[in-house]
Known about the structure:
- The structure holds 2 protein chains of 2 kinds.
- Chain A has 13 helices and 12 strands.
- Chain A has helices spanning 2-12, 14-52, 78-83, 109-116, 137-143, 176-182, 202-211, 223-228, 238-267, 269-277, 282-318, 332-356, 359-363, and strands at residues 56-59, 73-74, 87-98, 102-107, 121-124, 132-136, 150-153, 156-164, 172-175, 188-189, 191-196, 219-222.
- In chain A, strand 7 and strand 8 form a beta hairpin.
- Chain B has one domain (34-60, 79-225): P-loop containing nucleotide triphosphate hydrolases (Rossmann fold, 3-Layer(aba) Sandwich), CATH 3.40.50.300.
- Chain B contains 7 helices and 10 strands.
- In chain B, the strands form 2 sheets. Chain B has a 6-stranded mixed sheet, sandwiched between helices. Chain B has a 4-stranded antiparallel sheet with strand order 2-1-4-5, covered by helices on one side.
- The longest helix of chain B is centred in the C-terminal third of the chain and has 18 residues, at 177-194.
- The relative contact order of chain B is 0.20.
- The structure holds adenosine-5'-triphosphate and magnesium ion.
- Magnesium ion binds at residues 48-49, 169 of chain B.
- Magnesium ion (MG) binds next to helix 1 of chain B.
Amino acid sequence: MINRLVLENLKHRKLRTALSALSIGFQVTMILSVVGLSQGMLNDSINRAKGVGADIWVKPPGASVIGLSGASMPQKVLGFFQAQPHITHAVGTVIQPYAGISSVSGIDYKEFVGLSGNFRFLQGGPFQTPDELIVDQWYAEQSKASVGDMVTILNHKWRICGVVEPGKLGRLFVPMARLQELTNNQDKLSQILLKVDDPKNTQSIIAELKKIEELDGYSIYSIEEFVSMFSFNNVPGLRAFIWVIIGLSIVIGFLVVSLTMYTTVLERTREIGILKALGASPMNILNILVRETALLAIAGWLAGIVISFGANWAINHFVHSNLQSEITPDWWPTTFAIAMAASLLGALYPGLRAARLDAIEALSYE
Amino acid sequence: MSEPIIRIQDLKKIYRTGDVDVAALRGVSLEVAKGDFVSIVGPSGSGKSTLFHILGGLAAPTSGSIHIDGDDLMALSDSGRTNLRRRKVGFVFQKYNLLPTLTAMGNIEMARYFSENAGPLDQSFRDLLTRLGIQDRLDHKPRAMSGGEQQRVAIARALVNQPAILLADEPTGNLDTENSEKVLGVLRDLNERLGQTILMITHNPEAAAYGHRTVHMRDGRIVRES
Ligand SMILES: Nc1ncnc2c1ncn2[C@@H]1O[C@H](COP(=O)(O)OP(=O)(O)OP(=O)(O)O)[C@@H](O)[C@H]1O
Ligand SMILES: [Mg+2]
């Protein structure tokens, strides 16, 4: 019976119910989008790293795995690796960040496909001149670019010579020598990729490499170790950022529900008086408002998940090259708890106020 | 004669609003036998509603003694008064006071819910709905009903838990003559056929005449009976 009253009350003020549920929903979406983006971008990095096919990744001293840094490793160390037994390919690449979160990869085309296998071209083909650019499908779609178009990156004009399937190393590829020249990093590399004769030997090969004095300080990772570092914890500030978003959404949810429930209680003062005259105890009254709030929170949470699918689609559809988003169902229970907790906290004061209302005064309320 | 269902002696109620004390009841004594139908009249502010609020467990008495159906109201806590409202009394108000979001039946069910009166409605209550002439209006919400219909739903709601007393505070105050007569006729019928004890506040002498006797109040006291 209480449930019927609660439903009828919510139906009675459809617009207000919908708006409060939507505001709770947007808080849920806010959290899910931030988490979905973080996870999406990390997983995209992992896929691209794995897509290369290298067994061992070498980073210069002091370079972080995730941070984008320019080239700082002398090209001649390549020789050390090539001289090692069991290493079939040793290829240097240059990763140059530009425009914030984007980067362009400098590769020696022959060497790189020698290690990684051929690119799958959807359009065009390999570099014919040093000033050509290969882009992946996501970049091409987002920028509506195709073969023959000119693109300016790092103050240099490049002609797109090919569009490839995504999932290998980066999104934009240019000839390494030209990139080194443009960034004044002649003979410098950002990372070295190694392929070994038998992946089973990877660990022992790494152990041998670490013994070499000249490589002291270099970070040498197996592909598994390398991708395991693409996690929430290794992105500086990401965890704190997510906490801030969660905190904000709790505060906003609390305020929205407080206000909604406060006006609800005011508006229904007389009805609360009637319920008391019919024998409702203060707990009965609180119970009714708590159920109403809980329903709002559930509706808001569901709306939030639906909206997050929309946000996810929009991100991956319109800005797929810069941002990648994922649906993160493992966060649904967390966001449910957050929406519920914020809402119930918000309902607490108005609910107690209603429970304590004097029945006679409430009945004479106009 | 059997023990009266209501026994009030020297009942006082003082409202404390800020620094001023308002004496709403200044020593009321009254006995009501089971099956009685008492009309209460008196000028505005004479304490009629206050007496009902105390009888109905909506307000606590200040001093004196008051018993309903064996319960000592002076000794009741807040939750005791909640229980009194659930089981012993039914209220009918001038403004009907139906819950606007629920249907007529929803309103009745709500009263049953709080007094934990579960299961299907019994036949005698179904007969009552027919007598009240609202058996076809049970799916309607209050705003789709006339004032007279709403008041008859309120009476049904007040009686669904078979209360010891029915308290009607100006039940016809908002109704036209025709609807007033219908509602008063229903109250008399309930009293005569079912022996329902009824106390009714009214400003209308014709309405007061439906009761077996009329109690006159003035300045928080009962001044005479007729
Ligand atoms: N909650 C309250 N706080 C302070 N004073 C009150 C309160 N309720 C009633 N009173 C006072 O008690 C007195 C009696 O009021 P009551 O409502 O019982 O009168 P009444 O006989 O029902 O009048 P009416 O015919 O206008 O309904 C009045 O002076 C009123 O102002
Ligand atoms: Mg009154």
